[in-house]
């Protein structure tokens, strides 16, 4: 077995084969997702929320994300690992973007990077792809700009906004991105972009027609509870499973049932 390559994802689109992508931030989930055949894992800056407990993705830094990238790379054999460039690490321009992306490739050991934005970051995407770094773009609702958007809101609604979104999709493909995430956009607009672009589209809240779908793993597995966005589906109830295991462990310790003879050295 070998690692998935970006050209495998282009070939999948040409064949009409769909694929699933998940976030991962640690060795156990990375190993499980890799063994389950997930071809692309994203060490998302959503670690800000899902690992570090920040309220938004704005505060998380490259220094915080890089150890997670290394862990996910070490724990996987076949998945292509994408490292997410955090807010503030690429906006200044191509030089800053290249400096950060090189850190992700060298120190993190990932195989591609992702950054947020369309036309406004096409210079950065060109610089990275020109330097041999595969880039996944991310347009539509981009969480690093949530303060500018005024919260989690669908983007690309209405003729004018849809045209802007299509222009962003064209720009990132033209700049050399190997794939583009479409987050929280109307399904019809995602369908149109998916048909038009030769690179794969990866949807999250973008309807059923994108070439791939991405979900935050804690959402997919039901570890994160509470009010979920419309695009989340729980495929397990890990929060309940883990809560019950924890209560049983604590009960057995309190009751003197654990440890038993078989857990004890003589
Ligand atoms: O950081 C993240 O989890 C993401 C995906 C949801 C695309 O950017
Ligand atoms: Na992200």
UniProtKB/TrEMBL annotation:
<dbReference type="InterPro" id="IPR040442">
    <property type="entry name" value="Pyrv_kinase-like_dom_sf"/>
</dbReference>
<keyword id="KW-0566">Pantothenate biosynthesis</keyword>
<feature type="binding site">
    <location>
        <begin position="45"/>
        <end position="46"/>
    </location>
    <ligand>
        <name>3-methyl-2-oxobutanoate</name>
    </ligand>
</feature>
<comment type="function">
    <text>Catalyzes the reversible reaction in which hydroxymethyl group from 5,10-methylenetetrahydrofolate is transferred onto alpha-ketoisovalerate to form ketopantoate.</text>
</comment>
<keyword id="KW-0963">Cytoplasm</keyword>
<feature type="binding site">
    <location>
        <position position="116"/>
    </location>
    <ligand>
        <name>Mg(2+)</name>
    </ligand>
</feature>
<dbReference type="GO" id="GO:0005737">
    <property type="term" value="C:cytoplasm"/>
</dbReference>
<comment type="similarity">
    <text>Belongs to the PanB family.</text>
</comment>
<dbReference type="GO" id="GO:0015940">
    <property type="term" value="P:pantothenate biosynthetic process"/>
</dbReference>
<dbReference type="GO" id="GO:0000287">
    <property type="term" value="F:magnesium ion binding"/>
</dbReference>
<keyword id="KW-0479">Metal-binding</keyword>
<dbReference type="GO" id="GO:0032259">
    <property type="term" value="P:methylation"/>
</dbReference>
<dbReference type="Pfam" id="PF02548">
    <property type="entry name" value="Pantoate_transf"/>
</dbReference>
<dbReference type="GO" id="GO:0008168">
    <property type="term" value="F:methyltransferase activity"/>
</dbReference>
<dbReference type="InterPro" id="IPR015813">
    <property type="entry name" value="Pyrv/PenolPyrv_kinase-like_dom"/>
</dbReference>
<comment type="subunit">
    <text>Homodecamer; pentamer of dimers.</text>
</comment>
<feature type="binding site">
    <location>
        <position position="114"/>
    </location>
    <ligand>
        <name>3-methyl-2-oxobutanoate</name>
    </ligand>
</feature>
<protein>
    <recommendedName>
        <fullName>3-methyl-2-oxobutanoate hydroxymethyltransferase</fullName>
        <ecNumber>2.1.2.11</ecNumber>
    </recommendedName>
</protein>
<keyword id="KW-0489">Methyltransferase</keyword>
<keyword id="KW-0808">Transferase</keyword>
<feature type="active site" description="Proton acceptor">
    <location>
        <position position="183"/>
    </location>
</feature>
<comment type="pathway">
    <text>Cofactor biosynthesis; (R)-pantothenate biosynthesis; (R)-pantoate from 3-methyl-2-oxobutanoate: step 1/2.</text>
</comment>
<feature type="binding site">
    <location>
        <position position="84"/>
    </location>
    <ligand>
        <name>3-methyl-2-oxobutanoate</name>
    </ligand>
</feature>
<keyword id="KW-0460">Magnesium</keyword>
<feature type="binding site">
    <location>
        <position position="84"/>
    </location>
    <ligand>
        <name>Mg(2+)</name>
    </ligand>
</feature>
<dbReference type="InterPro" id="IPR003700">
    <property type="entry name" value="Pantoate_hydroxy_MeTrfase"/>
</dbReference>
<feature type="binding site">
    <location>
        <position position="45"/>
    </location>
    <ligand>
        <name>Mg(2+)</name>
    </ligand>
</feature>
<dbReference type="GO" id="GO:0003864">
    <property type="term" value="F:3-methyl-2-oxobutanoate hydroxymethyltransferase activity"/>
</dbReference>
């Amino acid at each position: 077995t070998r690692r998935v390559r970006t050209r495998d994802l282009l070939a999948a689109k040409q064949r009409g084969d769909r694929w699933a992508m998940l976030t991962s931030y640690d060795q156990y989930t990375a190993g499980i997702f890799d063994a389950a055949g997930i071809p692309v894992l994203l060490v998302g800056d959503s670690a800000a929320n899902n690992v570090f407990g920040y309220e938004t993705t704005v505060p998380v830094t490259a220094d915080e994300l890089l150890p997670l990238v290394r862990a996910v790379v070490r724990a996987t054999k076949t998945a292509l690992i994408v490292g997410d460039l955090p807010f503030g690490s690429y906006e200044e321009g191509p030089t800053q973007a290249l400096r950060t992306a090189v850190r992700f490739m060298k120190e993190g050991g990932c195989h591609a990077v992702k950054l947020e934005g369309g036309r406004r970051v096409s210079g950065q995407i060109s610089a990275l792809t020109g330097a041999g770094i595969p880039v996944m773009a991310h347009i539509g609702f981009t969480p690093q700009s949530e303060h500018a958007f005024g919260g989690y809101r669908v983007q690309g609604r209405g003729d004018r906004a849809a045209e802007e979104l299509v222009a962003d999709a064209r720009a990132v493909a033209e700049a050399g991105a190997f794939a583009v995430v479409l987050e929280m956009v109307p399904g019809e607009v995602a369908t149109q972009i998916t048909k038009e672009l030769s690179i794969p589209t990866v949807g999250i809240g973008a309807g059923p027609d994108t070439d791939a779908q991405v979900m935050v793993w804690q959402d997919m597995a039901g570890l994160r509870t509470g009010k979920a966005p419309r695009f989340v589906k729980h495929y397990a109830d890990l929060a309940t499973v883990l809560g019950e295991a924890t209560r049983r462990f604590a009960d057995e310790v309190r009751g003197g049932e654990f440890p038993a003879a078989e857990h004890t050295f003589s």
